[in-house]
Amino acid sequence: MIEDLAVYPDDRTVRELTQDEALDLLAATPLGRVVFTRNALPAIRPVNHLVEPDGRIIVRTRLATRFGGAVRANAGVVVAYEADEIDPVRRLGWSVVVTGVARQVTDPVLVARFEQLLRPWVGQVMDTVIAIEPTIVTGIRLLPREDEPTRP
């Protein structure tokens, strides 16, 4: 609405992130959201993750979940993965979206490694490790305008 423009002046700017910047920010935060298809509709689930040096995003889930079952039932499922850190008061921060193919990790050595590195954030057994291979990586950083004094 027009009134909102007066209350929230355009005092921020958006800067596009490089792929490396986006993956670095993603690696520095522990939680994100995976977007997948459920009954031909988009579904979103919060999960914790880690980012491998090659850019793959690793998550653990249960096979019984809709996401785990969708990945296991197919050779690869196109998903999106999103994470952000945005201050709602100052309206500053960043957002990263990765689109790619999710596949179940079946190599026992890798599964054991990821089970040690990535602890579930809920009190349930996570019996499936999934790797998302990034195809499209985008991100933005919300910054104060150049002429605005920098705040600590």
From TrEMBL:
Domain of life where this protein originates: Bacteria
Entries under InterPro entries matching the protein: Pyridox_Oxase-rel, Split_barrel_FMN-bd
Protein name from the UniProt record: Pyridoxamine 5'-phosphate oxidase family protein
Organism: Nocardia bovistercoris
Lineage: Bacteria, Bacillati, Actinomycetota, Actinomycetes, Mycobacteriales
